[in-house]
């Protein structure tokens, strides 16, 4: 049989190997889960980006559609319209502050002269606009190269390949959409301008208004939206017989901004606008085609609003719980295995100790029997010593009988199969049954048994099992004879007394007593104290363990008590 430390070493090595393997699997699983979560996060972010771009495209389409009637009515008005006062019927009258024409001397005239607020608006326009600034901006617009591509204005996002690919596809789609919307707006404006020119010419003919001759006819060019001094206007340059003039339509930007925000409130809450000027940095897919403005969007906030990844936390929590449960199961399995191994080793040690102790205890009586029987058979014993040899054989027989009885009774108690008849007997009657046996055991060890039973206690009835009590007290007296045999005081005191509706049987000797180390394992089977091992005291270490189990079998308890000299054991039983 291997030694316990070897078995424990092998167990620890196996457990360490399992822990290392489990750790490796856990790290791999965590790493794979991290990659999966990273891929899921990339996919989710790409989905949000795509959805946000779809919302922006839808919002731009709505806003351009909202502004298109204004562009068609205002930017496509023929040049003749600005030469004569007229009553203007427009579906978006609240979006226009003033229509006016300005010449090189900064003289402003307006076809809106029939409106009451025109004079005040003309005064404001005279302060806000001047001919030279319009000329400079018009020249810059003429020399500016058309560029409908917004790919260079992508926001500085640093995601992985999946999102980069999504952004690349989105940029291409946005550029195509922007170009298509821009071209459609220009075509509609040009067509509307031609229709308006024809309609306006017919109206002038009906009103007997002289039409311009071919020599002084004005070129029909659509008005272009632009910003000047923070004011949004439609403007075009017109050459007539009096020189070059600028025809402008001053728009009410505050009202336009409010209507556009309301139009896309469910798509882009809290959207803001930024004027597009030559110094403005364009942003991908955010510019309108009808007016020079682009959207200002809080992308992080919008991406957060579009999050639909609520189960991710649950998945992460479930994974953590599963991993923790696996480690807990491993810990419980290791603990259970350790406890089982400890129990098996202790059982093996107890079995080995039992075999060793019983073998040792059996060897002495058997050797004595064999030697004395051979001597008696061979006539080697003188007649006068025959009685002495017979007494020795009797003592060894009693010793062997007591050993076998203890072992068998302990085995029965371990299997819970010991069934002894209960009866009611007084304390005095109980003591009288086995007092002779106890005194005989004490006399064999040259000890003196003193029995103290007060008269008031002697008549107390007990409903118990006398045979069990006899065996317990005999074992206690037997231990006292073994351990206190060499003490100066050879008394063993067996006293009986009351204790709170219970009866206590107290066995006291005046030997070396019980050390604090031995007291911890005092009632363990097959355990012998250091004193017993040092003095080679006979026994297998079953006495106190057997007494403790027998006491519990009759609803009592056995315990020891500190004493200045010797050892004191108390058997406590219920009275009545």
If you had to describe this structure to a student in words, what would you say it looks like?
The chain is α+β, with helices and mostly antiparallel strands and 576 residues long. Among the domains are: 65-153 and 165-307, no CATH class; 420-574, Histidine kinase-like ATPase, C-terminal domain (Heat Shock Protein 90). The chain contains 14 helices and 14 strands. The protein has helices at residues 4-75, 118-128, 131-143, 161-206, 253-263, 299-305, 310-377, 383-414, 427-444, 455-458, 466-483, 516-520, 530-534, 543-553; strands at 96-102, 108-109, 224-228, 231-240, 243-251, 272-275, 293-296, 423-426, 448-452, 461-464, 491-498, 502-508, 557-561, 568-574. Helix 1 (4-75) packs parallel to helix 4 (161-206), helix 7 runs antiparallel to helix 8 and helix 8 (383-414) packs across helix 14. The chain is rod-shaped. Mean pLDDT is 79; it is low at 145-160 and 213-218.
Describe this structure in a few short sentences.
With 576 residues, this protein is α+β, with helices and mostly antiparallel strands. It is built from 14 helices and 14 strands.
State the share of residues found in helices, binned by percent.
55-70%
The side-by-side strand order for the widest beta sheet comes to 2-1-5-4-3
The averaged pLDDT comes out at: 79
Secondary-structure element pattern, one letter each: HEEHHHEEEHEEHHHEHEHEHEEHHHEE
Radius of gyration: 57 Å
Number of strands: 14
Oligomer: single chain
**What fraction strand?**
5-15%
Strand-pairing-aware structural class: alpha+beta
Termini gap = 52 Å
Spans of at least 5 consecutive residues with low confidence: 145-160, 213-218
Total helices: the number is 14
Profile the largest sheet: 5 strands, antiparallel
Name the overall outline. rod-shaped
Keywords: Membrane, Phosphoprotein, Transferase, Transmembrane, Transmembrane helix
Enzyme class: transferase
Catalytic activity: ATP + protein L-histidine = ADP + protein N-phospho-L-histidine
GO molecular function, one term: phosphorelay sensor kinase activity
